[in-house]
User: Which sequence fits this backbone?
């Protein structure tokens, strides 16, 4: 084949390709034309390229150059047509093969555990009432869990069957037998943080502490060996039971809604006098939320406060119960078995 013939077929091919691309009226037509001219297997450019082998050796460089120019011309004609049909930017959107009405790929967001969400919300509510968050250790000593809270050595609350005493250097037996002065245990209540806070600071105090507590209860729908409490403490001049009731009411209506009602009943705790049990009326029934009361003068004395100068109230409520009531969870064990089908609902 002569060089002029070869070049002639190249320019014919270019013209045909250019007009085919230019006349394509949608992406499907354009794609058809692309396969016809630029197809890697049977494209017409490919067939012309094969003729290169039949060109005289002397003419090969010139023929190769023409071929390259043709390739570029056809490719840019295609690019131009594509730009015309699908635009520059969101090409995919206008591609006829793309269906913008299809649902997207579902994306699963990680979330905080419902108890963590509850803790954050309660902390927030108490923060708005002026209570500052405080924390204490979960491994506590007898002094903070009992003695400073006016719970005497003989008190049944210290029973080894009701507490997780820890064996430190093998002293578990001694701790159980009450021979150890200040045995270590997993705290059974967040009231420990009241003591730590008062040891640390001078009145006025308004603190809230939210965290885990441990009791060797058999798990059932409403018990679990580990659960969470929210502890509130307010110490100042002339703090009364009326202040306590106001705070409990504001706390409840902020968390459960304005319609919630609250009542207190006489009760007993070694570290408060008088002591009360707080119930909330929610969803047609009275539910007990925890204990509260006016801080016992002995407790104030144990941290070096003067009971004639300051008074205060304290309360300790179960966080799981608040969370369960709000979300109508019927069994506390759901909260700790980590079944994602449950957890995903929050
Ligand atoms: N610590 C008590 C309990 O765990 C609750 C409580 C806290 C009662 C503060 C009175 C004052 O049951």
Assistant:
């Amino acid at each position: 084949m002569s060089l002029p013939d070869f070049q002639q077929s190249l320019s014919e091919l270019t013209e045909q390709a250019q007009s085919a691309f230019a006349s394509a009226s949608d992406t499907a037509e354009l794609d058809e034309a692309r396969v016809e001219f630029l197809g890697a297997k049977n494209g017409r450019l490919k067939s012309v390229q094969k003729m290169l082998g039949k060109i005289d050796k002397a003419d090969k460089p010139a023929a190769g150059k023409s071929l390259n120019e043709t390739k570029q011309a056809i490719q840019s004609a295609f690019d131009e047509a594509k730009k015309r049909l699908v635009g520059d930017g969101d090409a995919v959107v206008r591609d006829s093969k793309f269906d913008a009405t299809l649902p997207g790929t579902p994306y699963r967001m990680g979330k905080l555990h419902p108890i963590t969400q509850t803790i954050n919300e309660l902390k927030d509510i108490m923060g708005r009432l002026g209570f500052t968050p405080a924390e204490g250790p979960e491994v506590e000593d007898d002094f903070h869990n009992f003695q400073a809270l006016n719970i005497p050595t003989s008190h049944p609350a210290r029973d080894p069957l009701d507490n997780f005493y820890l064996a430190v250097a093998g002293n578990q037996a001694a701790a159980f037998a009450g021979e150890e002065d200040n045995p270590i245990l997993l705290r059974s209540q967040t009231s420990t943080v009241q003591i730590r806070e008062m040891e640390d600071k001078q009145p006025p105090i308004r603190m809230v502490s939210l965290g885990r507590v441990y009791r060797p209860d058999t798990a059932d729908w409403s018990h679990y060996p580990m659960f969470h409490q929210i502890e509130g403490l307010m110490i100042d001049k002339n703090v009364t039971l009326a202040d306590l009731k106001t705070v409990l009411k504001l706390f409840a209506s902020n968390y459960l809604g304005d319609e919630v009602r609250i009542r207190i009943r006489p009760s007993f705790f070694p570290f408060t006098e008088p002591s009360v049990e707080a119930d909330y009326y929610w969803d047609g029934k009275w539910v007990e939320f925890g204990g509260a009361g006016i801080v016992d003068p002995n407790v104030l004395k144990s941290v070096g406060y003067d009971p004639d100068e300051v008074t205060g109230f304290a309360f300790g409520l179960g966080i799981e119960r608040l969370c369960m009531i709000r979300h109508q969870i019927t069994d506390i064990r759901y909260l700790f078995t980590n079944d994602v089908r449950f957890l995903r609902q929050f």
Notes: The beta strands are 132-133, 139-141, 164-165, 184-186, 205-214, 226-236, 261-269, 272-282, 285-295, 311-318.
